[in-house]
């Protein structure tokens, strides 16, 4: 076990869902494939243009702050963050420095330092010796959340980031898809043997939760090896190479002074107390059920802890389950529904992860299937077959059971035919059962289920076998 203590602070950016960009009326469309179509003189940084604040973006960040239990600023302003790079056409980024919209708060046991609002940069693309810039993304509202340096494991960092993504989606302020760059995570990592922090290294280019965890683990090992060898860790920005599964140096880390922050002269100061819809009571009243509140509600329904985690992991899953609970209105049926959702349904989507969850399977059809199982109209095997068809094609469970012959067989005459065949084919096993070997009966029932392709009612089948054996 290492003698070094790992300390992590996260900086997470999320593109906000608004109709237009942060300071102009160009369309905010993250799905646009053609380059440089959603641009205008303002987001392209033409001289003489004046920005206008997107009120919806401000409201989005304040809603996040209310959900986190943070303090919504009374006075706030925007600042110019100066640096020169091709993705910043103005030569500065409009951000917030001294007066962020939100201060404090907590998520998943991690204290929040601040949440502020800024404009996104353009997207740079490098092909060989050629570099191209797409300005569609330039000016999109970007929320930045900064945690306190209170995270002490890669797993805790990953769990926090996942919870934040779920919160943003729950609030409807961001889709927060990492693979599309709508949520971007940077980890500030240091290690030390004392209570004092070690030298901080910032790791960028983390485009998945697993990458966050792996990069932190790698950086911990790298810094520990350096310190044990008597080398000095340099404060710098590093990237993450997904192929090599290692970090690499990019540049020496800039300090705030190097950005020469100063208040944005072209935007007004904001006094949020003068905007009624941004009052903290109003914001909290309008919040939807938050992820941790939903978990408590599911636990109160008697759902097991791990199943609760799985059901709340996505908005679609939680919404689907809520409708199923409303349909079934019975604790035992809900329990049966949870088993199918967290095993068969989850297993199907894990296997076909590119599919949209619940695209074909509806809460009504799934609830009907659970009712059929609980009423012994279909066997467990038959239910799984019906569910697979519902997932792939949709439809009505009763119709599928009729078409595929999946209703559970209880008819005495039908079962008798199957029972006579398995007795004839397994005479030795029958004699073993008559001699007192109880396990032989279960074998015969299993053969009967196989012969009826899972359609037989196990209890009725067992009775038919016993009646025939005498």
Give the strand content.
15-25%
Secondary structure: number of strands: 17
Distance between the termini: 66 Å
Shape: elongated
**Structural class computed from helices and strand pairing:** alpha+beta
Average pLDDT metric? 91
Number of domains: 3
Helix content: 40-55%
Q: Count of DSSP helices?
A: 15
Largest sheet: number of strands, sense, barrel closure: 10 strands, mixed
3D structure, described in words:
- With 470 residues, the chain is of the alpha+beta class.
- It has 3 domains: 5-284, no CATH class; 291-404, no CATH class; 412-469, Orthogonal Bundle (Arc Repressor Mutant, subunit A), CATH 1.10.10.
- 41% of the residues lie in helices and 19% in strands.
- The protein has helices spanning 55-68, 154-171, 209-228, 280-285, 291-300, 305-312, 315-328, 331-351, 363-374, 380-393, 397-404, 412-425, 427-434, 439-451, 458-469, and strands at 5-15, 71-72, 75-76, 79-82, 92-95, 102-103, 106-107, 110-119, 123-127, 130-134, 141-147, 183-192, 201-206, 236-241, 246-252, 262-263, 270-271.
- Strands 1, 2, 6, 7, 8, 11, 12, 13, 14 and 15 form a 10-stranded mixed β-sheet that branches.
- It starts with a strand and ends with a helix.
- The mean pLDDT is 91.
């Amino acid at each position: 076990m290492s003698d070094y203590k790992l300390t992590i602070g996260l900086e997470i950016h999320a593109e906000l869902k608004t109709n237009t960009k942060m300071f102009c009326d160009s369309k905010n469309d993250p799905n646009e494939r053609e380059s440089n179509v959603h641009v205008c003189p303002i987001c392209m940084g033409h001289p003489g243009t004046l920005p206008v604040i997107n009120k919806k973006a401000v409201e989005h960040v304040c809603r996040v702050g209310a959900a986190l239990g943070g303090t919504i600023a009374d006075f706030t302003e925007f600042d110019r963050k100066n640096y020169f790079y091709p993705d910043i056409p103005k030569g500065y980024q409009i951000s917030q420095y001294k007066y962020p919209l939100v201060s404090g708060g907590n998520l998943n046991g991690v204290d929040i330092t601040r949440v502020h609002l800024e404009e996104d940069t353009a997207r740079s693309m490098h092909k060989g010796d050629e570099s191209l810039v797409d300005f569609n993304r330039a000016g999109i509202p970007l929320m930045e959340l900064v945690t306190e340096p209170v995270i002490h494991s890669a797993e805790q960092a990953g769990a926090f980031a996942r919870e934040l993504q779920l919160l943003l989606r729950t609030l409807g302020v961001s889709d927060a898809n990492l693979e599309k760059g709508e949520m971007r995570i940077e980890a500030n990592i240091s290690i030390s043997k004392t209570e004092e922090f070690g030298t901080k290294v910032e790791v960028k280019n983390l485009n998945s939760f697993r990458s966050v965890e792996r990069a932190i683990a790698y950086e911990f090992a790298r810094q520990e090896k350096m310190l044990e060898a008597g080398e000095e860790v340099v404060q710098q920005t590093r990237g993450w190479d997904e192929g090599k599964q290692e970090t690499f140096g990019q540049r020496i880390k800039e300090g705030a002074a190097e950005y020469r922050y100063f208040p944005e002269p072209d935007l007004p100061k904001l006094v949020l107390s003068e905007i009624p819809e941004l009052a903290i009571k109003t914001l909290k009243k309008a919040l939807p059920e938050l992820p941790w509140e939903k978990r408590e509600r599911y636990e109160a329904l008697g759902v097991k802890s791990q199943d609760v985690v799985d059901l709340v992991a996505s908005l679609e899953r939680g919404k689907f389950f809520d409708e199923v609970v409303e349909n079934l209105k019975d604790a035992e049926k809900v329990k049966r529904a949870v088993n199918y959702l967290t095993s068969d349904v989850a297993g199907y989507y894990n296997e076909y992860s590119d599919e949209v969850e619940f695209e074909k399977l509806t809460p009504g059809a799934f609830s009907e299937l659970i009712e059929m199982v609980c009423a012994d109209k279909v066997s467990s095997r038959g239910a799984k077959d019906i569910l697979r068809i519902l997932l792939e094609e949709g439809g009505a469970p009763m119709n599928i059971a009729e078409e595929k012959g999946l209703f559970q067989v209880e008819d005495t005459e039908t079962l008798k035919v199957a029972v006579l065949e398995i007795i004839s084919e397994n005479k030795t096993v029958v004699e073993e059962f008559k001699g007192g070997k109880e396990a032989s009966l279960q074998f015969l029932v299993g053969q009967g289920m196989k012969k009826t392709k899972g359609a037989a009612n196990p209890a009725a089948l067992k009775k038919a076998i016993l009646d025939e054996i005498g």
